[in-house]
Design goal:
The protein has 168 residues and is mostly helical. The chain is built from seven helices and three strands; from the N terminus they run βααββααααα.
């Protein structure tokens, strides 16, 4: 059993809440109808009124459901195009807030991208140039006896076992 506030019922009927209150006092649906057509409602201990959704006529019930659910599901872009009041009051502020938020996101993304580029450049400075296979291996003529050492003595010394000799 769902309870509905009087302002929503009044909006669904297309009348004011004051007119709805006067209907409750008279006990009728409208001034020229039978008292049997009055809507069933509940008055709390604090004096607030709530209407039973099941007891409302089907057309009013549909309007109540449309008002309570679809009102919140409309998006900002649709309202800016179709609702004049929204586009001139709340929509203008929401549009400004969305624009400011998007600018902040873009600014942070740009700063992060610049920081990453700077970090990448610093890393590249610290690393030696990219080593390829050509730095280690190269073709030579097998028939040519090239001197790949500074001297023959160095070549012979490189084959000897290293000994620990003091520097001084």
């Amino acid at each position: 059993m769902e309870l509905v506030k009087p302002n929503i019922v009044a909006q669904a009927l297309g009348i004011t809440t004051n007119a709805l209150r006067k209907r409750r006092i008279r006990g009728t649906k409208s001034s020229n109808s039978d008292p049997v057509d009055a809507f069933r409602y509940n008055v709390s201990s604090t004096g607030f009124v709530s209407y039973y959704l099941e007891d409302l006529p089907p057309s009013v019930r549909e309007n109540v459901k449309r008002i309570t659910t679809e009102r919140t599901k409309r998006d900002h872009d649709w309202l800016m195009k179709n609702d004049f009041k929204y586009s001139r009051t709340i929509g203008r502020n929401n549009d400004r807030k969305k624009r400011i938020k998007q600018e902040e996101i873009d600014r942070r993304a740009k700063k992060l991208l610049e920081d990453q580029k700077i970090a990448h450049m610093k890393r590249r400075e610290n690393i030696d140039p990219i080593r390829t296979e050509r730095n280690y291996v190269y073709w030579c003529d097998p028939n040519d006896m090239g001197n790949y050492w500074n001297s023959y003595k160095e070549y012979e010394d490189s084959k000897k076992k290293k000994s620990n000799t003091p520097y001084y």
